[in-house]
Structure formats: structure tokens, C-alpha cells
Design a protein that fits this description.
By secondary structure, this protein is α/β, with parallel strands linked by helices. The protein has 15 helices and 17 strands.
């Protein structure tokens, strides 16, 4: 995150915002108390500010004049205020702000931090708006761009499918129902054949919305539904953010399921999920593939002598050097305990050279013990096979047998 501008004349709220945002976001927080100071500050480097958090009533801008001034500088504005009546709320939303947050305590600050983090992620989030009517389509796209989403527009279902084919990473589709060539129901059903609800969200919209329309959209595979003329701007943003956050949470759970918590490497589950595809491709096309098993020598002694915390540091040390030593296209995973496995898409000679280079680097790179002047010198034994065998599991078992031969013949060596 770059910089955050805070414009707040209350010393209590200003200091609280600065401390909270600095601690939670790591951004450089610039706090001023007047509109004049704020405009002077952003005059030369407005693009450096990821957002501005402003009080609606300032000594030199008592009617929210600062909002339009900062919006005109292309800075995303969040209004942080004590009271918002209907008139003020309408004025705020007319200025194309990101949001307004009431000064209601700790929960408001937490919401503010979450909103800033969302603004930071949104430029990498792609959204598609589909509507044959240009005016409502452009209005929705404009709202999304205020929140810094990367927005694509399509005039009908067929054009939407073409854009999706060109940009398969789109995370949200907002589609009208009444369109020529392909209506919103058909578009939703077609999209669901390739993208599940866990991979992409769909929000249906219609000018003639009712419960039946909403139900039909949901049955076709949509995640949500809104009536064009009926939704409030803040409701729209809440629904969009909620759908995006649901996808992010699912992605985080998926990532955690295939990631080793200690080293950050893929885990055994990931190895068998992705590795099977690599093995099948090699087996079917006669591509070169090697499998290596790495095991830290005398690891139990490290745990017994120094404790499990130091043992964890040793495992992390080995994982880092492995990542640096193996080619980028290798499928590397921690199998459990002190054992690692790698599928190397290369011939035996190159694989031997690569694994030997790692073994020597590890041997010559001690890991420090925190709070001590001493260090641990680690070595590994390696089993390597270039035989793809009858399955990935059989190939791994073969490498494992060779690993134990390396252990039995003196450790700190590779057996191929």
C-alpha cells in the first residue's frame, strides 16, 4: 500500500485513525486538519494516495466541499463522519465516493481497514458487466471503477462469452436478463458449464425484477440478484464485495488445503493432485521425468538436543534452499516430517546435477540457532529415479527405496 490521506480536524479521531491505519495497513498515513492543507499535500503526487479518509465537515469546508475536490484528483474518497442524514447521504453518493463510515467506535475502524484492503486488491480483480442498454451498463461499470475494479463491458451474451474466453480470470459477472441473441438466464447457464460458483460469481439484474425473476436467476446458477432501479449504491457495493470476498475465502481455504503450514511449500496432497498430471503427460509422451526424495539426516537428534522449535527452523532452512536450488518447473512438496519430494521434468544427468548442487549447498550453509553463537550443519540423503514406472505412486516408492539405500550407505549422499 502506498499512502493514505486522512483529513480530520478532531485531534482525537485524527490521531486514532493515523495510529490504527499505520499499524493495520503498513501504509504511510498523512494526517492534516483542513481542506487547504490536504489540497496542498496532494497537488504534486495525487497518484501516490491509495485513498483519502475525510471528515465531511471541516473548518474551511463545512458542507463537504473537500469530497469533490479530492475526487477530481482521482483519489478514492471515504467519508468518515459522525452524522449522515438523507440529504447528506445523497450528496455523498452523488460525488462518486467509495463509501461513508460512521464514527461509531472500534467496529467502524475495523470496517475502514477492511475497506482499504479491498481497495488495494480490487485493481487485480476483473469484473464483466453485460447489458444491451448502454446507459445502465456504463452506470454500473462506473460504480465498479470507483472501487478500482478492472471492468469489462459486453452488449449481449455472445459478446460476454467471447470476453470470458479471452479473460478467464474474471471473478464476477453482472448480467441483465432482457438481451438479444442470448438472455441472462441462458448466459448464466452457459457460464456455469465452465465456471463453478466457487470460481466465479454471477449477479443477475433486471429492470422488471420480482421474486420469480430472482428465483429463476438463482436456479440457473446465479449467486445474487438485484433490481436495476431499486438498489442503493451502498447496497450494490456491499453485494459486490460480499460475492468477491466469498470467492477469496474459498480460494484461501483451497490454498490452505494444499499448503504445508510450516514451510509454505505445497504439501503431499498437492503433490499427488498436480504430480499425477505431470506423470501422465511424461508417461504418454515419453518426456523425461525424474523423482527425488530428500530426507534430513539425523533429524531426531536435532529435535532431542535443541528442541522442536529449532527442528522447525531446520526444516524451514532446508525448504528455502530446496526452492532456490530446483528449477522453477519442478513440482516440490513437503511429504511430512523431515522428508521432501520433487518431480523434475528433466533427464537423469541434469536431475543428478541439480540434486547434488542442492546437497552441497545445504552442507556448506549452516542454520543459526536463535540466542546462541552456535549453528547447526545439516545434510540430506537423496533417492532419485528416472523410471516413470506404472504410476506416480510407484515412482515415488522407487525413489524412497533408493533414499534408504543412501541412508544405509553412510548418509549425506545421492543414490540414483
Amino acid at each position: 500500500m502506498k499512502k493514505i490521506l486522512v483529513v480530520e480536524d478532531s485531534s482525537f479521531f485524527g490521531r486514532m485513525l493515523k495510529n490504527k491505519l499505520t499499524a493495520e495497513t503498513g501504509a504511510k498515513v498523512c494526517w492534516v486538519t483542513t481542506m487547504t492543507e490536504a489540497l496542498t499535500l496532494v497537488q504534486d503526487d495525487a497518484s501516490e494516495y491509495v485513498a483519502a479518509i475525510v471528515n465531511f465537515n471541516l473548518p474551511d469546508a463545512p458542507r463537504g466541499e473537500i469530497v469533490s475536490e479530492l475526487v477530481s484528483c482521482n483519489i478514492p474518497v471515504i467519508v468518515f463522519t459522525s452524522v449522515v442524514n438523507k440529504e447528506v447521504r445523497e450528496q455523498i453518493w452523488a460525488e462518486k465516493v467509495v463509501d461513508y463510515v460512521l464514527k461509531e467506535g472500534v467496529q467502524s475502524l475495523d470496517y475502514l481497514v477492511a475497506l482499504l484492503r479491498r481497495l488495494e486488491r480490487n485493481p487485480q480483480t476483473e469484473v464483466l458487466v453485460v447489458d444491451d442498454s448502454a446507459l445502465p451498463r456504463e452506470a454500473i461499470a462506473a460504480l465498479l471503477r470507483v472501487h478500482r475494479y478492472k471492468v469489462f463491458e459486453a452488449a449481449d451474451g455472445r459478446q460476454a462469452l467471447q470476453i470470458m474466453a479471452e479473460h478467464p480470470q474474471i471473478k464476477l459477472v453482472i448480467t441483465d436478463f432482457h438481451m438479444p441473441n442470448m438472455d441472462g438466464f441462458e448466459l448464466t447457464q452457459t457460464l456455469r458449464k465452465q465456471w463453478s460458483k466457487d470460481d466465479m460469481a454471477i449477479i443477475g439484474i433486471s429492470a422488471r425484477g420480482d421474486n420469480v425473476m430472482a428465483a429463476r436467476f438463482l436456479k440457473c446458477g446465479a449467486n445474487d440478484f438485484m433490481v436495476k432501479q431499486a438498489f442503493l449504491t451502498e447496497e450494490f457495493y456491499c453485494r459486490v464485495s460480499q460475492n468477491i470476498e466469498n470467492l477469496e475465502n474459498i480460494a484461501a481455504i483451497r490454498e490452505a488445503a494444499v499448503t504445508d503450514f510450516l514451510t509454505g511449500l505445497p504439501n503431499r496432497r498437492h503433490l499427488f493432485e498436480e504430480g499425477v498430471q505431470v506423470w501422465q503427460q511424461a508417461a504418454e509422451t515419453d518426456l523425461e521425468l525424474c523423482c527425488a526424495i530428500f530426507d534430513i539426516d539425523h533429524f531426531k537428534q536435532i529435535n532431542d538436543e535443541y528442541g522442536h522449535d529449532i527442528g522447525d527452523l531446520a526444516i524451514q532452512h532446508v525448504a528455502r534452499i530446496l526452492q532456490d536450488s530446483l528449477p522453477a518447473e519442478a513440482v516440490l512438496a513437503r511429504m511430512g516430517g523431515e522428508e521432501f519430494c520433487a518431480l523434475l521434468p528433466q533427464g537423469k544427468e541434469k536431475a543428478v546435477e541439480c540434486c547434488e548442487a542442492f546437497r552441497r549447498t545445504l552442507e556448506l550453509t549452516p542454520t543459526d540457532i536463535p540466542g546462541s553463537d552456535s549453528a547447526i550443519h545439516l545434510t540430506v540423503s537423496i533417492g532419485l529415479t528416472a523410471e516413470t514406472d506404472t504410476s506416480l505412486e510407484a515412482m515415488i516408492n522407487c525413489a524412497d527405496v533408493l533414499l534408504y539405500q543412501a541412508k544405509d550407505s553412510g548418509r549425506n549422499r545421492l543414490v540414483c
